[in-house]
Amino acid sequence: MTISTDDVRRLLQTEDKDAILVMVEGRIEVIGAGALASDKYRGALEVISREDLVSRVGRDPSERALTEQASILDAAVSELGG
């Protein structure tokens, strides 16, 4: 599964300050941190939190910065076998 620029943008734009980007059953989703403990997301791989993403790219990043982060995150997940 590829993490896209749109996935990174969705995480950044969500109003939930505790949101995280996860990979579950081959899908990339943005969820609230509390949902990670639910049965629906059991076994999900936490990719990055909104807070960590903001610390990396700021609150209003360029399209290039979003694309770069998507590539970095995708490579990290691929290395883990995701």
UniProtKB/TrEMBL annotation:
It comes from the Bacteria. This is Pyridine nucleotide-disulfide oxidoreductase.
